Amino acid sequence: MEFILEENKHLNKESQNLVLPALSIGNVGQLAVDLLVSSTRAETVGYLDDPFVLPCVGNDAYCPIPGGDLALPLQAYESFSSGMTLVQQRSPVVKGMMIEYAKNLAEFAATNGKKHVVVLSSLDFGRWQKIDMSSGLQIYYLSSTNADGTDDYCEQLGWKRLQEYNPEQRSWKYLTTSAEGNAMQDSSSLFEDELEDEDYYPSLPFAALFSCFKARGLKVTCLLCYCSEGDNIADAFQLAEAASKILKLKPDNFQGGEGEKWVIPFSWQTVYGPPPDMSIF
């Protein structure tokens, strides 16, 4: 992975926090990062060129004024006011190369002085075993702070550790050994075989990112929410709010329009396509 800085731009060396999405159902992690980039007025500082991420290109996702800026597969943003770096991923990873991609990202984070990585992602609502909607949508987490994935601060915020995390289960152990560079060659097809229920969570991108960041000695916190495909804007707000809490940001200072604290990204105007042509009705 190569990191290319834009002209006259730089990463904040004092910023030790990195926020990025893990692609999953409903693209909630990506939407939440969009919301954080827009609301914190983060600036584009460069992009990452990785051989394991599929190419794509699009218009600037945040500015309504045509400035000739392009949106690329992996872009880095710096929020100097909030003291964090954000990486937005806009295209999927080549099949079977998720662990290698995660290693590359971990190298980028460690090389650039990051100490705490926050990964935002979603989980399939159909696999939610113990549904409790008494307090609204629930945030789940997975942290490298303790061996069992728990974190005292996350618990204080009222979040629940991902119950399905078991570092002794075969798939989680495979991720750990792969992240440390000790995986056996005959284990390479583990996630290509028919998966059992217990293999679902470690087969997701967030699990590979968690394992590789942890292997590099970085603190990593995965923030997760269950959702279904469809309009996931509400889930994105929830996940962005959770990220703000763990990073101790103050969304009330974001100064969104019309009394709102969040700044809605320009690209969200057509996130589910243009409105229908009313003449057909």
Compile the SSE list and pairings:
Elements: E1 2-5, E2 17-21, H1 28-39, E3 43-49, E4 58-59, E5 70-71, E6 74-79, E7 84-89, H2 98-111, E8 116-124, E9 140-143, H3 152-156, E10 160-161, H4 170-179, H5 205-215, E11 219-227, H6 233-246
Helix pairs in contact: 1-6, 2-5, 4-5
Function: Chaperone protein which promotes assembly of the 20S proteasome as part of a heterodimer with PSMG1.
Family: Belongs to the PSMG2 family.
InterPro entries: Proteasome_assmbl_chaperone_2, Proteasome_assmbl_chp_2_euk, PSMG2_sf
Model description:
By secondary structure, the protein is α/β, with parallel strands linked by helices. The protein is 23% helix and 20% strand. The protein has 6 helices and 11 strands. The strands form 2 sheets. It has a 9-stranded mixed beta sheet with strand order 1-3-6-7-2-8-11-9-10, with helices on both faces. Strands 4-5 form a two-stranded antiparallel ribbon. Helix 1 crosses helix 6 (233-246), helix 2 (98-111) crosses helix 5 and helix 4 (170-179) crosses helix 5 (205-215). It is globular, with a radius of gyration of 19 Å. The protein starts with a strand and ends in a 35-residue tail after the last helix. Mean pLDDT is 86; it is low at 184-188.
In short:
This protein is α/β, with parallel strands linked by helices and 281 residues long. 23% of the residues lie in helices and 20% in strands. One of its GO terms (biological process) is proteasome assembly.
